[in-house]
User: Fold this.
Amino acid sequence: MVNALILTAAGSSSRMGGPVKKEYLPFSGESGVSVISACLHAFLSTSLFSLIVITVPEGGEAEAREVLARDNRIPPLPWEGVDVPRLVFVPGGNTRQASILRGLGAIESSGGPGNGRPQTVLVHDAARPWITGAVIRRVLDAVALHGAAVPGVTPVDTQKEIDETGRIVRHLERARLSAVQTPQGFRFGELLEAHRQAASDGREYTDDTEIWGRYVGDVYACEGDPANRKITYREDLR
Assistant:
């Protein structure tokens, strides 16, 4: 099976309160290691991907390349040869949804004679540097079985549904809830077609499972990892 990865790093990181994008901040205290390079290294270490697309801000490819080059675990660019995947940088859109659609389009364009069109695509937030090979493999296995999968963990706190006034309107069963993470995995062709339909339906979707659920079918949860956190604020790096 041929797998592709979209690593999303096109956001503005406005909630970090600093001039540096959160994906480009130093990570783990090791020289040259950044949040995004830690993510990329985790996926490269699995040797399961033939194509990697990184979404970046408009005009931001040079900066992304510079950040990745500081991490000596990442092979120097450009990548060539049979032992490394192809790497493509794509300028993101105005929303995450638009950026993912551009990434999917880049995957479609990269396929061709001898390259092979990916059967599976994983979409991962580059602000989740604690991703592990074990979670990546579980998602790929679940996609092979179900067509669409997302890693998730049972919430620690009891969950309630409230209305606009703050009144509790439903008591939820924690055992039946899942706090979903990334990478989210899908059959490539169907996700691309679903995104194209979603782009013109007038709605805004928060993640790819919503789009798949509306236009394709069921998404299944597999075991995530509580450590697979997303960096949103600067204190999250601690």
Remarks:
- The CA atoms of residues 4 and 175 lie 32 Å apart.
- The longest strand covers residues 3-8.
- The mean pLDDT is 91.
